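Hi F.,

I've been meaning to write this up properly since the lab meeting, where we talked about keeping a consistent format for the predictions we share between groups. The idea is simple: the sequence comes first, exactly as it goes in, then the structure tokens exactly as they come out, then a line or two of notes. No screenshots and no reformatting. I'm using this chain as the first example so we have something concrete to point to.
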Amino acid sequence: MDTYLLTPLEDAVVFPNMSITLPIDVGDEQRVLLVPTHEGEYAKVGVVAEVTERARLPRGVTAVSLNALHRAVLGAAEADSSGRLRVAAEPHVDDTPAPVKTRELEQEFRAVVEEKLELRGDDGRVAAFMRSITDAGALADSAGYSPDLSFEQKLSLLEELDVIERLRLALEAQREALAQAQVRQRIRDDVETGAQKQQREYFLRKQMDSIRKELGEDDASVIDEYRAKIEEAGMPEEVHEQAERELSRMERMGDQSGEASMIRSYLDWLIAVPWSKRSEERLDPVHAREVLDADHAGLEDVKDRITEYLAVRKLRQDRGIAADKRSGAILTLIGPPGTGKTSIGESIARATGREFVRMSLGGVRDEAEIRGHRRTYIGALPGRLVRALRDAGTMNPVIMLDEVDKVGADWRGDPSSALLEVLDPAQNHSFRDHYLDVELDLSEVLFIATANVADSIPGPLLDRMEVIRFDGYTTDEKVAIARGYLWPRQRERNGLLEDEVQVSDDVLKLIVTEYTREAGVRQLERELGTVLRKTATQIASGKAKAPLEVTVDEARSALGKQRFYQEAAIRTAVPGVATGLAVTGTGGDVLFVEATSVAGGSGLELTGQLGDVMKESARIALSYVRGHTAELGIDAHAFEDKGFHVHVPAGAIPKDGPSAGITMVTALASLLTERKVKHTVGMTGEVTLQGRVLPIGGLKQKVLAAHAAGLTDVIIPERNRADLEDVPDDVRESMNFHPVMTVDEVLAIALEPAPVRV
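Output, unedited:
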């Protein structure tokens, strides 16, 4: 083992057969050990280098030229008398492996290096140098010349003493370098190709411009085309001036400008608005009523309002009275799902001879959906109203604003606020879309909004609407709708002919009463579809022959077990249960309020997901009963050491509203007096601490729900007596209504006589 002067190389690696010049002073040493270092750590293997020349550089700096000879494995190190570090090292000379073992690796290594050199445009000298190397170890070490290898890769090559493994490492490193070079070349080619394509397109456009000029078809023809379209559009004067200004801007900047495409899009939208086009409205109230009656059963309020609207327009037109832009009709149809709110819009359009466009507002949260985006934004578009006018092709269509009660609001704005201007007859004759930035006259549009409930519509927006309530259908009306509309439609959808299947009104009534309990007829249509599918299957499979009559048994077999029952008698069979009437988002409903007492308890417990209003009603009810024990015949000690629990079943469904007060009083009074509530009685009304019965809303829907549930007596507040006129005649004639002013009247009607104690 020989000792050498240690010469560290900071983040550099020297391989055997390399020559290097370093600015160091090695004294009289003839050989030194070059060792790579990184962050103060020395490599395990260095290279013994021979000093071939010494030179003195300016400013007293000494430099030496070194020729690397062979590898050496580092041993112990110690400082000499002059303080320089000397290290013992074991020289290592590469073994020469059999050519058979290295031939394939050498060939692949040379091929990879030559391909990489070809990508870099080598003139052939480096490739020739590589071919001149015959020793496998030297060939692997030649990878150290590559600038693509990292310090870590070069260090691994230096420390690898086995020639075959070193050649493999060198080949892997050169493969990685080749892959990177290929990626860089591909990117360079793509960039050059793109630049050449742009340059080519530029020259082609110039040539096209020259050809167009020769043919008289230059950019001026595009401008002339837009100018002609603007003239044909019949725009108002202000809009026409705006279009001409934008067209002049495009003409000055040329068609190749980036902003020109934005101006063209703007002009296209401006021209797309049907400024001068209007449907020829058919102002015939009699014809309109016939169309509405043919399409929908019931809905008399809506039909009357449309007939009145057309009659007024007809009189004004016949008598030469100018149209008032501030008198547009904004109808809002509010009612449960499935009652025909959306479908009647199409009938109104057909009855008036107008185009029909539907805008669904459910879940809309961006104000720009209504007013449009400002043109400064990328991808800006007009609002839905402009697009609706474009789709309709006229300025006087019927536009249905569906689900207006489900409009949301977030950081992008409040669409309901934008609708204020749209639905205000005093403002919508000058509606301004942010994208078009010109005034649009919406006064001729017949807006029809739909909603399930009015509570979620903002007050200012609801104030601009003319509300028409859809309170649902009676059993007889549902049977008539099924007979005249739903059954024929479902029969056709299921591939059956009119003479192949028949159904009686009794079967239809059975389906209505036992398998559906909804305000509308959507579920009824599904059930009829189920029956007809079963019938179609029997005919198609040859199990039955037409014509078929759907009987009660066949209907029950197709629809399964009965889903709805007249359960009032069963539920009120014990004291403490009263039948209340409520309105939900899906129409009227019957609620059973249950009350019980708990020995040893205290206070009042409420369950059934009750809202704040119903919780207050329950507390008021308990306070009233406790304050009137003598009048109600309740034992004065009935409240001692007892708690009370009021529950409204279907606890998973949230319930709230000011109409359950008298029902809760009746339930508690029934519990404490042990008098059952009459199973034929339903009730609705709010109560005060003094026992006054306050009016409620949604009486028609509640009465229809009571009628469907088999109730025959309904207790209502006296101040709702006038609302009974809205109840259909057949329902009003089949039920007894009891308008009341005080709780005493309620209990006298609702409770059974006190049990006789023996």
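Notes:
The first strand starts at residue 2 and ends at 10.
Residues 285-469 form a domain with the Rossmann fold fold (CATH 3.40.50.300).

If this format works for you, I'll send the rest the same way.

G.
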